[in-house]
From TrEMBL:
<dbReference type="GO" id="GO:0046061">
    <property type="term" value="P:dATP catabolic process"/>
</dbReference>
<dbReference type="InterPro" id="IPR021130">
    <property type="entry name" value="PRib-ATP_PPHydrolase-like"/>
</dbReference>
<dbReference type="InterPro" id="IPR024180">
    <property type="entry name" value="Tetrapyrrole_Mease/MazG_pred"/>
</dbReference>
<dbReference type="GO" id="GO:0006203">
    <property type="term" value="P:dGTP catabolic process"/>
</dbReference>
<dbReference type="Pfam" id="PF03819">
    <property type="entry name" value="MazG"/>
</dbReference>
<dbReference type="InterPro" id="IPR035013">
    <property type="entry name" value="YabN_N"/>
</dbReference>
<dbReference type="InterPro" id="IPR035996">
    <property type="entry name" value="4pyrrol_Methylase_sf"/>
</dbReference>
<dbReference type="InterPro" id="IPR048015">
    <property type="entry name" value="NTP-PPase_MazG-like_N"/>
</dbReference>
<dbReference type="GO" id="GO:0008168">
    <property type="term" value="F:methyltransferase activity"/>
</dbReference>
<protein>
    <recommendedName>
        <fullName>MazG family protein</fullName>
    </recommendedName>
</protein>
<dbReference type="InterPro" id="IPR014777">
    <property type="entry name" value="4pyrrole_Mease_sub1"/>
</dbReference>
<dbReference type="InterPro" id="IPR000878">
    <property type="entry name" value="4pyrrol_Mease"/>
</dbReference>
<dbReference type="GO" id="GO:0046081">
    <property type="term" value="P:dUTP catabolic process"/>
</dbReference>
<dbReference type="InterPro" id="IPR048011">
    <property type="entry name" value="NTP-PPase_MazG-like_C"/>
</dbReference>
<dbReference type="Pfam" id="PF00590">
    <property type="entry name" value="TP_methylase"/>
</dbReference>
<dbReference type="GO" id="GO:0006950">
    <property type="term" value="P:response to stress"/>
</dbReference>
<dbReference type="GO" id="GO:0047429">
    <property type="term" value="F:nucleoside triphosphate diphosphatase activity"/>
</dbReference>
Length: 508
């Protein structure tokens, strides 16, 4: 049975690369005076066909290029017109290269044909990839090359491209059809590759008299008019230690550090237990950068914290416990599962409902994991490595939900005074230790009533005290005196001078 739509590939450009099946189809169409619809006539094979088959009736969709607002609209329009024609008579639709390689119009057409129950047939053609690889002497399969459409790449932001481009494998960016697109491609690739990185712009591959290769640094990609509709950009791979913006590079480095025998002796000795202190230290350094609102420092400290994640994952991989892939899987699955209002069909009205859903989902997760929720304390699952003031306020928040809470702020102040009196009356070091803890616990309770994060309040006080004392040190240097030479009275005077120099520091 004759297909309603026959899609045929024209090859990369030379008439000699046209397949025998395609030549036979065009000859039959010429004999039967059947019109062949070309996506575009701007292709070298079309001119050769017109010379070899002067009776071949040719139509194209070039008129739509000026009428369409964007490429997606263009390819949709072409597919719609071909399907409409196919409802009246069999249609031959010809496209450059291979119909299924770099041809969005064909993908749209196949989908529409299925929806309209129109039969299709594809007559393969040599794609542009084969002659490009021949010029480059590149085996894309052995090299694991990526192939990216220039228009799609140019539409990505730097962050989006970061999740798709792998700079450590060869990259082919196809259909770099003009200088403007070359500029957009250059900007996207500059996220990963050095400006001086050598690239090759291949033009008219497979067309004997026209094919050529221009070698140039990446930053010059748009500084010429070499690119046209038959251009492909080849970007050679970066070395693993050069691709510094790539997550995979961090994985490689951590593996290399712990790899015997050419790794680092110190890194090879580390265990989950020995690395624990560094996780805590790096976490607090991230917090410090946030408090200072120092974005350059924050980027660095987040990297240090991320290193701890990769080091623990590498220790686990070598001990056959888990891999970094398991880490990604756990957090990605959790985020999807706990955001059904984003990735599912749950609707929420505000952030409060999001929190309620989150807690219920967490509760269900614990039940699915075999936790007996009836036996579970509301104070369970608060990490004890968390700063003590934060643990105290978290405990207080949880018990308040079930009614264990003061009714008024005055009651909190009264309890605070009571704990202070008990501390003053404590006689032994053990009693003083206990009563000081009680006092701090109630102080954090006061923070909750005042809607103040007790940990952050204390950290802010520490920062202000540091600035105040550093101002005192500077005054002492100006007076050319050692700190230990000051009397109590002189310390008081010095403190007041420092207070004037740093008025935001707390009194002592």
């Amino acid at each position: 049975m004759t297909a309603a739509i026959t899609i045929v590939g024209l090859g990369p450009g030379s008439i000699h690369d046209l397949t025998l099946a395609a030549q036979t189809l065009f000859s039959q169409a010429a004999q039967q005076q059947q019109t062949v619809y070309f996506r575009t006539l701007i292709h070298p094979t079309v001119e050769s066909l017109q010379q070899d088959l002067p009776t071949l009736r040719i139509e194209s969709f070039d008129r739509l290029y000026d009428e369409s607002q964007d490429w997606n609209t263009l390819y949709q329009q072409i597919a719609q017109e071909v399907c409409t024609l196919a409802t009246q008579q069999p249609v031959i639709y010809a496209v450059p290269g291979h119909p299924l390689i770099g041809e969005t119009s064909v993908q749209n057409l196949l989908q529409m044909a299925r929806e309209r129950q129109l039969s299709t047939q594809i007559i393969s053609g040599l794609s542009f990839i084969e002659p490009v690889c021949s010029l480059l002497e590149l085996d894309p399969f052995e090299a694991g090359a990526q192939i990216f459409d220039a228009t799609n790449l140019a539409a990505l932001s730097g962050d989006e491209a970061g999740g798709k481009i792998i700079p450590t494998v060869p990259l082919l960016v196809v259909q770099v059809y003009n200088r403007r697109l070359a500029s957009a491609v250059k900007l996207a690739l500059s996220e990963f590759y050095p400006d001086e990185w050598p690239v090759k712009l291949v033009r008219a591959a497979g067309i004997n008299q026209e094919e050529s290769v221009l070698e140039l640094p990446l930053y010059e990609l748009d500084r010429n008019t070499f690119a046209n509709h038959l251009s492909t950009l080849y970007v050679p791979p970066l070395d693993e230690l050069t691709a510094l913006r790539l997550p995979e590079t961090l994985r490689y480095i951590t593996m290399r550090l712990r790899r015997d025998p050419d790794g680092c002796p110190w890194d090879r000795q580390q265990t989950h237990e020995s690395l624990t202190r560094y996780v805590i230290e790096e976490t607090y350094e991230v917090v410090e950068a946030l408090e200072e609102q120092n974005m350059d420092k924050l980027a660095e400290e987040l990297g240090d914290l991320l290193l701890q994640v990769y080091l623990h994952a590498e220790v686990a991989r070598q001990d056959e416990e888990f891999t970094i892939g398991d880490v990604y899987e756990q957090i990605n699955a959790k985020l999807i599962r706990r955001h059904p209002h984003v990735f599912g069909n749950i609707e929420v009205q505000n952030a409060g409902q999001v929190v309620q859903n989150w807690e219920e989902i967490k509760r269900q997760e614990r039940a699915n994991a075999g936790t007996d929720l009836a036996e579970e304390s509301i104070l369970d699952r608060v990490p004890q490595a968390t700063p003590a003031l934060m643990v105290a306020q978290e405990y207080q928040k949880r018990v308040a939900k079930v009614g264990f809470e003061f009714n008024h702020l005055d009651e909190v102040y009264a309890k605070l005074n009571e704990e202070l009196l008990e501390l003053q009356q404590a006689k032994t070091p053990e009693e003083q230790h206990e009563e000081l803890g009680d006092l701090l616990f109630i102080a954090s309770k006061l923070g909750r009533f005042l809607k103040i994060d007790a940990e952050e309040a204390l950290r802010a006080a520490n920062r202000k005290f540091k600035r105040r004392f550093q101002a005192m040190e500077e005054l002492a240097r100006q007076q050319q005196r050692a700190l230990h030479s000051y009397t109590i009275s002189e310390w008081s005077d010095l403190w007041m001078q420092a207070k004037n120099a740093a008025p935001d520091a707390p009194l002592i």
